[in-house]
User: Fold this.
Amino acid sequence: MPNLNVFADEHILSPAEQTWKHYSSQQIAMAALWALGLLFFLLVFAPFIAPHEPDLRQAHLLLQPPSWDDKGTVDYFLGTDDLGRDVLSRLLYGLQLTFGNALLISFIALIIGTTIGITAAISHGLLSSTLHHIMDTALSIPSLLLAIIFISVLGPGLDHSLLAILLASIPQFIRGVYLSVYQELQKEYIIALKLDGANNYRIIRYGVFPNIIETLVNLLTRAISSAIIDISALGFLGLGAQRPLSEWGTMLSGATDLVFIAPWTVVLPGLAILVTIFIVNIVGESLRQSIIAGID
Amino acid sequence: MPEKIIDIATTTRVQPLLRVEKLGKTYINPTGFFKRQEVIAVNDISFSLNRAETLAIIGETGSGKSTLARLLAGVITPTTGNIYVDGCKLDASNTDLRCRSIRMVFQDPETSLNPRTSVGQILDAPLQLNTDMSVAKRAEKIAETLRLVGLLPEYATFYPPMLSSGQKQRIALARALILNPKIIIADDTLSTLDISLRSQMINLMLELQKTIGISYIVVTHNMGLVKHISDKMIVMHQGECIEQGCTEQLFSHPTAALCGQILSNQYNMKKQRG
Assistant:
């Protein structure tokens, strides 16, 4: 059908459309987005895709090399570990434990942190100052150290490590959101909105929120990647997920003495952590830049 | 000034449109744990303004003229004094009256429009909050107001970063006009624009004054502009009003020595440059 639109009636792009236009023009960013989509797919359908049970031990198949090796078989695509468990299945289930939990924690931290951050920014006096200074104190301790302190009180375990990482990542959100909302509130268009008679909710929803999405994306990206690192680091140290669980850090720590005999048992979980963080960061950073590109 | 305006002004002289009594603002800055320093930004200002008149507030930088404009617009609350519009006192309880009767146009159009909301949304906010018009009526009003400031109704779908600063300033003026206010406060609005845009804006403002009968309060450094558009003026120095009265009279016979100095300094400088 021929184009019947005689008048070049240009469609005005909304900020969201503009962001997408900028984002989709970047090839690396798009590749990372597809990869992230694949990760989500695997995350949800891991139990259906995984060829074996993650804890199925087969004594006759110890340290089977990956399928591309001469001694490997396609049934155990990425080989088996020292207890005869399928590495591919363990990695897929580990995706839920490491990446899934990191996402969950980061979104909970985002919601709690944003709420407190906005409250702190719009309140005055004692409440604002208390929230601000408590968060400053909490922030001065590195998140992993804070998590270790929590675990030393609560005892090791995946649940406890998740709680500890959640509590450690909330202050970062509060601080980031507080700062950007506070800066936004000084802008003249917010004063103009106030003079229109807008209440606090309206000012935050229509005046501030569209302008802090960039900060939120940035904070979320960093929170997800640091949560992945923290979960696997605590697992590696034996403080987080415990042995039979196929959390990636725990898998790594179990395989360190096999590094020369069966390098795939160490390299593959490590690679999984690396690639996941890489993808999250590329998508997050490109998205942030695309959001900014809309207004410059 | 055309005669028509003077007619409107004389018929409504019974009660001034805007009456300001002993308006003052003091800031208290903590300088130590228990020490406080009082800074008087604006002190004891009284004046009145009639319909379709223009008041210019002039003074050096830091003389409190911007603070005065913000006090009148309701951005900051005064520590002393009262503001009356049509004899009705403005305070915290009737913010909607203030919203509808006094509107402000900010200094910099680049920062006074939210870059992430469309022009339509920007103009819709005051209507939504202060009137009970239906969606269709609001859209109609937005289109009408955009035409009034010399833009097309299609601009409602645009976002501020797509517009030039002159267009942005028109949108800012449209936002002030959309509630049919009685008074518009322009805080150094025109100084950021280049000469041709500035004269366009001035003509637009004067045109609106002639047709709708709006009063303006203009804060500016530009003495040529003051002489051109204002009927009354207030000269400020260190938060105090040192001289006020009819513009023509003040320009020709300033009584306070300092006032004469400010006027002649700035006006002559402009003349020499031009």
Remarks:
- Chain A touches chain B through 22 residues (CB under 8 Å).
- Chain A has one domain: 24-49+59-293.
- Residues 24-49+59-293 of chain A form a domain with the MetI-like fold fold (CATH 1.10.3720.10).
- The two ends of chain A are 37 Å apart (CA to CA).
